[in-house]
Write a structure and sequence with these properties.
The longest helix is centred in the middle third of the chain and has 22 residues, at 140-161. The protein has helices at residues 15-27, 51-61, 68-75, 82-89, 115-118, 122-134, 140-161, 164-168, 186-199, 210-216, 226-231, 242-254, 268-274, 277-282, 293-306, 324-334, 346-349, 386-396, and strands at 32-39, 98-103, 106-114, 175-177, 204-207, 219-220, 260-262, 285-288, 315-318, 339-344, 359-366, 369-370. It is globular and about 60 Å long. Helix 2 packs across helix 6 (122-134) and helix 7 (140-161) runs parallel beside helix 9. The mean pLDDT is 96. The chain is of the alpha/beta class.
Length: 400
């Protein structure tokens, strides 16, 4: 059986991998990161059976280089700097920084190396594991079921957009694809994104996948991820000040571009304590990724109001476990008060009638020190060092 690489372009990843990598290269190029793979649910088939295939795909991934056409596309993004593209011209992933093994029925994947290398593996690894896992399910019948579900999403959104209710809404409905990391396959993601964008071009405006944005003439969407803020827990600033240091570094790098701040590394309350008038004016809005989205959004609105900022001038971006009905419910709820946008992931790119994997690849150490994410959702907290986790909770006054 001939080998077929699942990743054929280094652009086939989320935009925030590039935006975060640029900051790392410019501000802490010597930082060292350690990442671990985790599956949050119980797969129907053992992931350990994928090990050999994953290893072969990683071997192929590490032979890829950016083409001149890809580099030219990146140069045309106004927030990507010329020296960073010059760096990418020389870039390729180093196989020695990633190791794959098995523990019982589970895959164990660890990445250890300079962050300018280690952080770029994440989306590729998750997409590879997903596609290998679902290959046995990739049948005509399964794709027909996926198409039926996709058609239903398009019809539901189209019906809402044509309704009198939508005409009365204050702000436009904005949806983007955030589904690369948990896609059924590369081809299915492209198919789904292409179909929704063609049917609803004023609603479905972007994708986090840089390659698809380039190929389909869409807007690439993304700013920062948890790992960016987590790294500052180990970059020499006082732990209590790590969020402020991360946000300030982002502002200095992008100076008004990419202005959506992620809020849930140590929880929304602790984030807002640091998100003062200075940051609230400099950032365009906030991204929700854990906890009750309604309570989170109401907290954000009250925070802006307390700072005497009109919430209508800001945006809330929702990206946690969305489907079409959740999107419409959140849109209706917040539209009178604040702009919203929505990043839909698994339910767009892997809604095929089979249970999706809940897999992540998270930063656990930076510069030899543990880092942690204190999520607002049970089960999403990520840390391999209980002592550091307890200390982080104590510093931010968060109950265990």
């Amino acid at each position: 059986m001939s080998f077929s690489p699942l990743i054929t372009s280094l652009l086939d990843t989320d935009l925030y991998k590039f935006t975060m990598l640029q900051v790392v290269l410019h501000h802490f190029p010597g930082a060292h990161g350690e990442y671990e793979f985790r599956c949050r649910n119980v797969p129907e088939r053992p992931l350990s059976a994928l090990r050999t295939a994953v290893e072969a795909q990683l071997d192929a991934l590490c032979t890829l280089r950016f083409t001149q056409e890809e580099l030219a596309y990146l140069r045309n993004l106004r927030f990507i700097k010329s020296d960073f593209v010059d760096y990418l011209e020389l870039f390729h992933l180093q196989r020695r920084f990633i190791e794959v093994s098995t523990t019982g029925d589970m895959l164990t994947i660890r990445i250890k190396g300079p962050m300018v290398q280690a952080m770029f593996f994440e989306i590729f690894v998750l997409a590879i594991v997903n596609e290998l896992y679902f290959q046995p399910c990739d049948t005509e019948e399964r794709r027909a079921e996926g198409q039926r579900r996709l058609d239903g999403k398009i019809a539901r959104l189209a019906a809402f957009c044509a309704s009198e209710e939508a005409a009365r809404c204050r702000f436009p409905l904005l949806i983007a694809d955030f589904g690369t990391r948990r896609r059924f396959s590369r081809n299915w993601q492209r198919h789904a994104v292409e179909q929704v964008h063609a049917a609803l071009p004023t609603v479905f405006r972007g994708t986090s996948n840089v390659y698809l944005a380039w190929q389909l003439g869409m807007t690439p969407i993304g700013t920062m991820a948890h790992e960016f803020l987590q790294a500052f827990q180990a970059l020499g600033v006082r732990l209590r000040d790590f969020q402020k240091a991360a946000l300030e570094t982002w502002v200095q790098e992008y100076r008004g571009d990419l202005g959506i701040a992620l809020t849930d590394v140590v929880g929304m309350a602790a984030f807002l304590a640091d998100f003062d008038l200075y940051f609230a004016k400099l950032f365009d809005g906030l991204r929700h990724d854990s906890g009750d989205p309604y309570a989170w959004g109401e907290q954000a609105i009250r925070h802006y109001q307390a700072l005497r900022i009109d919430p209508a001038s800001k945006m809330l971006t929702f990206s946690d476990g969305l489907d079409v009905e959740r999107i419409l419910a959140l849109y209706r709820h917040f539209d009178p008060h604040i702009q919203t946008s929505f990043g839909i992931g698994t339910n767009l790119t892997n809604d095929m009638g089979v249970s999706p994997l809940q897999i992540v690849l998270k930063l656990t150490h930076c510069n030899g020190q543990p880092v942690a994410k204190l999520s607002d959702s049970p089960g999403k907290t990520m840390c391999t060092d209980a002592t550091f986790l307890a200390y982080l909770r104590q510093v931010f006054g968060i109950a265990g």
